[in-house]
Predict the 3D structure of the following.
Amino acid sequence: MLLPQNLEHSFYCKSYNEFLVVDLPQFYCETTDVRSERRFHKDQSWHAIRQLLLEAANQVAKGNLLPHLAAIIKEKVSVHEYASIAHIHEHFSSRITVEDLASIEHFHPVYYVEWFKRKTGKTPRAYLEDYRIEQAKVLLIETSHSVAQVGKQVGYTYCSTFSRTFLKVTGVTPTSYRRIKR
C-alpha cells in the first residue's frame, strides 16, 4: 500500500502479516501523484525490492542503493498500476470509449467513471484529453510537424478541435506554445 505523506495510519490482518514499509524522502517522490491510498499485489518484483532493501541496509558502506530503489518503487506505484490507465497511455492516439476502458477493469461504464474519478481526480475523458495535450506539447517542441499533423498524431481528427482543446487546456494555441517553448 502506498500512503500519502503525513497520513496517520495503522494496519491489521487476521492472517500472516508481512509488510514492506518504505518511508521515502519527499524529494525522491516529487513527481509521484499520490492523492489517496493505493493497494498493490505482491509480485516477484516486490520480493526483489525487499531483498535489495535488506541488502542495502546491511551493507551501507558499499554504496547508496536508495535512489535506484526509489526510482523502481516510484515506477511501480505510478498511475500505471491500473490496466485501463495503461491502455490510455499506450493507445491515446486511437479512439477510446468509456465502455472499452470499463471492460478492461471489468466494471459497468457508469461505475467505472465514478471509480476513475476517485482514483485520478478526473473523468476518463478529461484524463485522456490532458494526456493527449501533454504528448502534443512534446511533439510541438521536438518536431517540426505541422499543428494539424501533431493533432492527428495525438488522436484528433480535426485540426480545429485539437487547437481549441489545446487552448482550453494550456491557455495558449499550439502555434504560440511552440514559439514560446523553442
